[in-house]
Amino acid sequence: MRKGFTLLELLIAMVVLSIGMMGIFTLVRQSLDMNDYAKRKLDLLGRGYERVILTLAEGTTLEDIITDNGTTYTYKLEKQDTGLQGIKECELRITDGTAEMALFYYER
Fold first, then answer.
1. How many CB atoms lie within 10 A of CB 103?
2. Per-residue confidence at 63, pLDDT binned at 50, 70, 90?
3. How far apart are CA 97 and CA 73, in angstroms?
4. Alpha-carbon distance 4 to 66, whole Å?
5. Among 31, 51, 82, 86, which residue's CB has the most CB atoms within a 10 Å radius?
6. Are 90 and 106 in contact (CB under 8 A)?
């Protein structure tokens, strides 16, 4: 009796291994995509805070469309009354075409 694996056993092992590797590859790809998405959202959040600070310091308008390094950023502002005297809730939405971020703050 010979010892070793037959060709059929090796082919079955290769198929099982390749199916497992495809699953791992899919998980890694999804992880990289989510990491990229989180980076874009963090960038939008930073740009929103920067825009609010510049607006408060210089008195410029928040709503604008800006192109920076080939990416177009759209800023849209919505204000709602809070019910408190003279205080409004402001929602600044920043989009770059692939991600969107909302920044909330209050003003008098």
1. 19
2. confident
3. 8
4. 67
5. 51
6. yes
Q: 23: pLDDT confidence band, cut at 50, 70 and 90?
A: very high
Number of domains in the chain: 1
In a domain, 2, yes or no: no
Please list, in sequence order, all residues whose beta carbon lies within 8 angstroms of the beta carbon of residue 95, skipping any fewer than 6 positions away: 44, 73, 74, 76, 101
List the beta bridge partners of residue 94.
75, 101
| Residue 68: inside a domain | yes
Which CATH number does the domain housing residue 72 bear? Answer: 3.30.1300
Instruction: Reduce the secondary structure of 29-55 to three states and give it as a string.
Output: HHHHHHHHHHHHHHHHHHHHHHHHHHH
* Residue corresponding to tokens 């009796």: 1
Tell me how far apart the alpha carbons of residues 76 and 61 are, in angstroms, rounded to a whole number. 10
Residue 52 structural domain:
7-107
Tokens of 67: 């192109």
